[in-house]
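RAD52 motif-containing protein 1
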Amino acid sequence: QHSLFSVFSKFGPLYSVRAHRNAAVAGPGYYAIIKFYSAGDASRAQRACNGQRLFQKSPLKVCVCTKQKGFQQQVLALNSNKCQELANHYLGFNGWSSRIITLQNVSGFGIENEELGKTLQKRSVKYLCAVEVTLPNHGVRTRGVALGKADIENSEDPLEFVTATRRVQKLAVGKALSSAFQKILLVVLENGKVAVEHNSSPQEPTDSLTEEELKGLVQV
């Protein structure tokens, strides 16, 4: 996998690299599935690497997979780490910044368990976070709001409570950062330049609110 990553990452940032053994009926050897963020990068890699001896004696066959039978096409949001990886690659480490506007404890308790015939109070930790992402060179600013939650099995254990609180805070911040990045559209041109568009839904007014209004909305 390291050799594959070294070769194909030259054409653009990679989402994932996975190598697998061939099925027994196909004979000894391996096949790999390499996912690019950009379809253009994948096409360039296929044209350059197909039929070449990259790091092995036999030529490598490289195909572009455009359809996966048996799997329903789903569009999933990138997690915060992947979002930051793309932003650093296309915008540069100094081309964007993020800050936490608010991180609030909105914890509550559980509900009645009818099977046991009594009410069980199960402690849960919830944090609601609002994050702002700014792209100063493009004049773009977006915000994301998200909830992080975890249940605590032993509410009497202070260590478990502190550990869960830190985990939930980190989860809420990461989800809010990912939500903010979902409103940013990066357009990579053929000459390598990057254009940025703000893709915000009318049903999400968080970008137009003041910080005080946003904090009040989060509290409600």
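thats it. Residues 1-72 form a domain with the Alpha-Beta Plaits fold (CATH 3.30.70.330). The longest strand covers residues 124-135. bye
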